[in-house]
User: Fold Hypersensitive-induced response protein 1 from Dichanthelium oligosanthes.
Amino acid sequence: MGQILGLVQVDQSTVAIKETFGKFSEVLEPGCHFLPWCIGQQVAGYLSLRVRQLDVRCETKTKDNVFVTVVASVQYRALADKASDAFYKLSNTREQIQSYVFDVIRATVPKLELDDAFEQKNDIAKAVEEELEKAMSTYGYEIVQTLIVDIEPDDRVKRAMNEINAGKCFTIHITARMRVAASEKAEAEKILQIKKAEGEAESKYLAGVGIARQRQAIVDGLRDSVLAFSENVPGTTAKDIMDMVLVTQYFDTMKEIGASSKSSSVFIPHGPGAVKDVAAQIRDGLLQANLQ
Assistant:
């Protein structure tokens, strides 16, 4: 009934293209319009002003010869003030946009290596958007946004990359464990060296204490011997007793040197008179030490 009366309804976010005897006349805004068909006025078609999305899958090759599939998402819409251009100039908007996306991606991605392509997704999207904006504005369309939503390498490349990443993770894990083990080993060696040094210091201290006690025992024994000899043999002096002790030790030493086949022999004056000289030298040394 509306077409018979010449009434046309245009929905919201939509414009209608009015023609008179097949020639573009004007763009009809949303609402109700009177188009008497009897004078050749009619609606040639409708054009949506809503934002539409087109997903484009483009296969290309990177600089390092890896085949990838780049998935681009283009959001676009027709401009109300250029509705006639959008309606008449393009017969298939989606295919036109897809052709431009293919052209830009296949000109940009081959300049990048695979890792760089992942890192520079925004740069690729920006290049696609700039090229589309420049080309589609003449046809009455606005490019709202362009996104590179995915870069899919070949399945064999994916498996190889996963194996490499797994190997890297394993290597990092092993390296960390080895670093911890080396640190613990170094700490253990440090503790062993400290304990060894403490043991040696304690050993030397105890050895010194033993030598000091040995010398003290020798001195005490000699003192007791001198006192006992002086009481049992009247008229003897401490000098006579020390000479006799030195002679006794001298012959004991000579006996030990002769009894051992592997000991180094030390040749010293060993006559009876030499013993007296040795005793004199020992006494002189003790006297000089006391004077100092």
In short: Residues 125 and 284 are 105 Å apart (CA to CA). The chain has a mean pLDDT of 79.
